[in-house]
C-alpha cells in the first residue's frame, strides 16, 4: 500500500523506518556526529543528521507535507517569522502560547512588523483584519483559552488577500486536524508536547507542502543554528509511534472529566473544544483557590508542561506573559492516560480542601 492509503495510526508506527535489509535495525539509530562523509545529503551536522530524517519523515507523512525539526517550538516559529518581509502586517490570536506572542510583540516593538491581534474564533473579525497582511498565524485550539478557529475559511480568505497562513497544531496534532489539507501554508509544532508525549525533551517542527517554502525554512534553520539534537529527535520519533493510542486514552479521559467538572458546584466554567487532551476551567474563589488546588493535588502534577502521559495542571496567570484577558483563576489542565476515576478523585479532594 502507498503511504497516502494508510491510516494515521499505521503511519505513526510505520513511516520513517530504515530500509529493510538483512541484519539492519528496525528503528533508525542515533547518529551522534558533527561531521558526515561528503557525498550524501549533508556533510556537516548543522545541515543534516540521519536521525532527524526519521522524525521528519513520520511527521511529514502524518501532516501531509515535508517536515523540518528544530531545537524547540519557539525556534520553529521564530524561523518562520524571520521570513516575513520588514514592516509587514501579521495577524495573530490574542490568546496564544505566550512564547509566540512574546516574539511577535517584540518584533512589533522594534517596528519590524505591524501586529494585529484578533479573537481567532471570531472568523469575521479575523477576515476583517486580513487586508494588507503578509502572515496569518493561527493557533487552534488556543493556549490556554481553547478557542477553535475556522482554519479553512480563514485560509481561503487569506489566500485571496495574498497572505500566508501558518497553524500551530500542537494541541490538536495531525490525528485531529491537518491544516495543510485545509489550505494552510505551514504547520508548526512544539514536538515536546503530544508528539513526543513523555515530557522528556524540547523539540519543534515546521511542515509545509511547498518546496520553495521548505527550502527557505531549511536555510533559516541552518543559518540560525536552531537545530535539534540527535537524542531528542530519536526520542520524539519513538514517542510518535504511540501517539494514536496515547491520544485516544487521554482524550477519552478529558471528555469525561470535562463533563464532571461542568457539573461540579465549585466550578464556574469548564472549557473543552470537543477534541484533544486539554481542559481549561475556573473555580469559585478565583486565583487564590485555583493556585492552592494545583499545588495540593497528589496524582495530577503541578507543572507548566503539557501533552505527556501524566496529567499536569497550573494556573496560567501565574506567568507574567499571559494576557490580562485570561481569567486569573483559569487552570489549564493537560489530561494524561491515568485511570479517569483516580484523576477525578484527586480533583474532588482538592476541590473540597481548597473551596
From TrEMBL:
Keyword Transferase: yes
Domain of life: Bacteria
Region (Disordered) residue spans: 1-24
Molecular functions per Gene Ontology: cystathionine gamma-lyase activity; cystathionine gamma-synthase activity; pyridoxal phosphate binding; transaminase activity
GO-annotated biological processes: cysteine biosynthetic process via cystathionine; transsulfuration
Pfam families: Cys_Met_Meta_PP (PF01053)
Cofactors: pyridoxal 5'-phosphate
Sites of N6-(pyridoxal phosphate)lysine modification: 193
GO cellular component: cytoplasm
Keyword terms, alphabetized: Aminotransferase, Pyridoxal phosphate, Transferase
Family designation: Belongs to the trans-sulfuration enzymes family.
Name assigned to this protein: Aminotransferase class I/II-fold pyridoxal phosphate-dependent enzyme
